[in-house]
Amino acid sequence: MKVLGIETSCDETAAAVVEDGCTLLGQMVASQMDLHARFGGVVPEVASRQHVEHITRVIAEAMRDAAVTWADLDGIAVTCGPGLLGSLLVGVSAAKSLALATGLPLVPVHHIAGHVAAALIDRRAALPFLALVVSGGHTELLWVDGSFRFRKLGGTQDDAAGEAYDKVARMVGLPYPGGPAVDHLATTGNPAAYAFPRSMMDESNYDFSFSGLKTAVLNEVNRLRQQGQPIPTADLCASFQAAVIDVLVAKTMRAAKETGAKQLVVAGGVAANRGLRAALTTATAHAGLPVHFPPLALCTDNAAMIAAAGCLLLAQGRTAGLDLDAYANLTLSDWQESRFPVRR
Fold first, then answer.
1. Overall pTM > 0.85
2. Before 44, cis peptide (omega within 30)?
3. Which residues pair with 130 in a beta bridge?
4. Above 80 in pLDDT, residue 115?
C-alpha cells in the first residue's frame, strides 16, 4: 500500500509517499522558517500564502523523489486539524482536488496522530504503546492501542512545552525558533542555578502546566534587568529546561508503570531536544522500558508522518468524503469518531 501524505498545518509545506506505513519512499518539504524569523514567530496569513505558492510543486517533487505515479498510489492522506485554519485549508483543498481528479480515497489525519505515526517509520516501534507528544502546540500523554486508536491520559492545561521554550527564548534574546537555541545553551549552563517550579509534579493526574514556569523565568529576567545585572542566559536556559524535563519524565514514567506499557514513543518537535532524549533514555533504561524516538528529521512537522498514519487508517477503511473541511481545534476524540462538522 502506497499513500501520499500532505501536511500544511503551520509553516511547513510538505508532501511524502510512504509504503505500508513504515517505508518512506520520497518526500519534499518547503520550509518557511527563515521568512517568519524576522517576525519572531509564525504569521498565519503569510504562512497561508506561502502554502498556496508551493503546494503543487512540493507534491510533484515528492512523487518524483518516490518514483511513483498517480496509478501507483492507493490513497491520499492530509492533515485536517488542528492547526492554523488558513494553512490547513490549503492542504485539505489540494488533497480533495487530487482525490476528485484521480478517484483515490481521501484519508483525514489528525496532526497528533501523525506525530505518533512517525515512530512507526522504519519499524522503530510497533503498536500498542504509550506515547508522549511534545511540540509547540501540544503536550499530551496518550495510550495508542493495536488499532491505532487513542485514549488521552492527560495534557497541558495552558502552554505546551514547545510554546514555553519559544517564549523563554524570546525573553532572553535568543533567535526564532527558540527551542533548539535553548536546548543548545542549556548544555553549557548550570541546571541548578535557579529553582524554577515543577508545576503539577506531585498531582495524581497526567496533566501538565508550563505557564507558571514561563512566568517564573520572566520574573527572574525582569529582576536582573531592573538591578542592572547581566542576564546569565545559559544558566537560565539550563534551569528552565531542567524544570520542563523533570515534569515530563516523572509523569511519563508514572503513566508507563500504571498502564503497564511495554513500549514508550516520544514524538513531536520537542522529541528532538537532546536534554529530553537523554533524560528519558536514562529513566526508561532503569525501568527496562524500550523507548522509541522518530528520526530527528521526522520530529518536526512533515508529511511522512501523515502518510504513515494514512496507511494505517486506509487499511481500516477510515476515509472521508469530499465534504471534508479544515478544523483548527479538532480534538483526537472527534477525529477518531469521524465527527467532522460541515460548514454551511
1. yes
2. no
3. 143, 264
4. yes
